[in-house]
Write a structure and sequence with these properties.
Belongs to the glycosyl hydrolase 13 family. GO terms for molecular function: alpha-amylase activity. It is built from 14 helices and 18 strands. By secondary structure, it is of the alpha/beta class. The protein folds into 3 domains: 370 residues, Alpha-Beta Barrel (TIM Barrel); 58 residues, Oligo-1,6-glucosidase, domain 2; 59 residues, Sandwich (Immunoglobulin-like). α5 packs parallel to α6 and α11 packs parallel to α14. The chain is globular and about 80 Å long. The model has no long low-confidence stretch (mean pLDDT 96). The site of 1-deoxynojirimycin (NOJ) has 9 residues, from loops.
């Protein structure tokens, strides 16, 4: 199981209200005790933080707010000593607007070679309109016009925020420099690399219009044949990186963030000479519905089998509404990148389902990714004051979409009041924590055998111990029940119906998300040792 550390919100070691590498290092024993195999740590690079560090100004250093390279080395050494691997986040589709390359490109002016590492183009309509109709993931057009010494001039492309100009991967200099970055981190002993925004890294030459209707929002999971997403040439980059990774000793893992149209397109990212694994967003986006979930599970396994890559399962991340909240809503599928205007949730129902979903996720064949705080059953914080919001989505959407800050609120570790051990007492965390999180701290849950933390610890321990087998074999317990065996050692039953499901004859209870007796209550799951 890989645990996602959203660094800004995990643990603050230096008392500035922002999570950092020393803070993370100090909490490694918690992660080892939880049963984590590896960490994926979100960007720690020097950054103006226009997008929480996904706007990188130097890919081969650490932002002083997060620590130093020596802190990273110490983190990796300590993690390895505890049997935990470390995966770094590589943001290669774009840089920060403060990256020396982009500054040089702006200073050099139209037509200069410094501009060829990015996409600078003349505007249409005599220069006043963007070069094409492409849109930004955070809302609005994907182009911003440069104002030079002589007034407005060319436009540059940014599929994310204007502070994140897209790199042109047809530039040999760009590709060579990222080879050096990949080697830099692998040389330091990290075990893997998460590839940010993987499908964005190639564009159709000539940058033709995509045909987006006016006011369209980013819908990459629906796009087919889009000139700025999932373009075939993107796979050349991954083949290149795989060749680099394969030259290192040990198991070095590449995992991509690729939100694309369906499992067949996704499987292309994990062909034998490309990346090893990829996040499964179809699973994350699925509603709490047995048919929909089974379709995703079957579709994923069927699409990945021919390329021989393991599946991954993920319920939440720093980009999506936390699934306790999602599953408490009538419309329980995930929305895109914080464009989430769904009505309020029934959080008790959401937590019941989230606990059941944990047992489902951890029983499926392949790897599981867990987002920090998921093991504490944290809900989305939906009432952050507007002045606290920092996600660029809030501004870019003209204050119509609140963005992703609600899933990024710093973790509650201990104590009765903010900062709940996230930072030293008296320090204000970068996003406010709800007072109601006092009952959800890791410390409070550690002592309670019925807590969500205890459920995750028990499930992760069993998952390591049980001799599970491939493939998964479905059992038919009714249309609204997901039931399957992983060989003779593990049977998983998830009740998504409104009625109790009798358990008689199905096996001995190993672990339940509720309190399974003779029947399995709605919205709960159980692991059984088949009779
Ligand atoms: C995906 C990251 O997970 C997200 O947080 C970021 O905003 C975009 N990529 C752009 O880098």
């Amino acid at each position: 199981m890989v645990y996602e550390v959203y660094l800004r919100s995990f643990a603050d070691g230096n008392g500035d209200g922002l999570g950092d590498v020393p803070g993370l290092r100090s909490r490694l024993p918690y992660l080892a005790d939880l049963g984590v195999d590896a960490l994926w740590v979100t960007p720690w690079y020097p950054s103006p933080m226009a997008d929480g560090g996904y706007d990188v100004a130097d890919h081969r250093d650490v932002d002083p707010r997060f620590g130093t390279l020596a802190d990273v080395d110490a983190l990796v050494a300590d993690a390895h000593a505890l049997g935990v691997r470390v995966v770094v986040d590589l943001v290669a589709n774009h840089t920060s607007a403060e990256h020396p390359w982009f500054r040089a490109a702006l200073a050099a002016g139209p037509g200069a070679p410094e501009r060829s590492r990015y996409f600078f183009r003349d505007g249409r309509a005599g220069g006043s309109a963007p070069p094409n109709d492409w849109i930004s993931a955070f809302g609005g057009p994907a182009w911003t016009r440069v104002t030079g010494p002589g007034g407005p001039e060319q436009w540059y492309l940014h599929l994310f925020a204007p502070e994140q100009p897209d790199l042109d991967w047809t530039s040999p200099e760009v590709a060579d420099d990222f080879d050096a970055t990949v080697r830099f981190w692998l040389d330091r002993g990290v075990d893997g690399i998460r590839v940010d925004a993987a499908p964005a890294m190639a564009k159709v030459p000539g940058l033709p219009d995509a045909g987006h209707p006016p006011g369209a929002s980013f819908a990459s999971s629906e796009w087919v044949g889009n000139p700025h997403w999932d373009v075939d040439e993107v796979h050349e980059v991954f083949r290149r990186w795989r060749r680099i990774g394969d030259a290192y000793d040990g198991d070095r893992l590449f995992v991509s963030e690729a939100v694309v149209n369906g499992p067949e397109r996704l499987a292309r990212y994990v062909r034998p000479d490309e990346l090893h694994t990829t996040f499964n967003f179809d699973y994350l986006k699925a509603p709490w519905d047995a048919g929909a979930l089974r379709t995703v599970v079957d579709g994923t396994l069927a699409a990945l089998a021919p390329v021989g890559a393991p599946a991954t399962w993920v319920l939440s991340s720093h980009d999506e509404t936390r699934h306790v909240t999602r599953f408490g809503r009538e419309r329980s599928g995930a929305a895109v990148m914080g464009f989430d205007d769904a009505p309020p949730a029934d959080l008790a129902r959401g937590l019941r389902r989230a606990r059941a979903a944990a047992l489902l996720t951890l029983a499926l064949p392949g790897g599981a990714y867990l987002y920090q705080g998921e093991e504490l059953g944290l809900p989305e914080v939906e009432d952050l004051p507007a002045e606290a919001l920092q996600d660029p989505t809030w501004e870019r959407s003209g204050h119509t979409a609140r963005g992703r800050d609600g899933c990024r609120v710093p973790l509650p570790w201990s104590g009765d009041a903010p900062p709940f051990g996230f930072a030293p007492d008296g320090v204000t965390p970068w996003l406010p924590q709800p007072a109601s999180w006092a009952s959800l701290t890791a410390e409070a849950q550690r002592a309670d055998p019925a807590s969500t933390l205890s459920l995750y610890r028990a499930a992760l321990r069993l998952r390591r111990e049980l001799p599970v087998e491939e493939p998964l074999t479905w059992l038919d317990l009714g249309a609204d029940v997901l039931a399957f065996d992983r060989g003779p050692a593990l049977r998983c039953v998830v009740n998504l119906s409104a009625r109790p499901v009798p358990l008689a004859g199905l096996g001995r209870v190993l672990l339940g998300s509720g309190t399974p007796g003779e029947a399995l209550a709605p919205d709960t799951a159980v692991w059984l040792a088949p009779a």
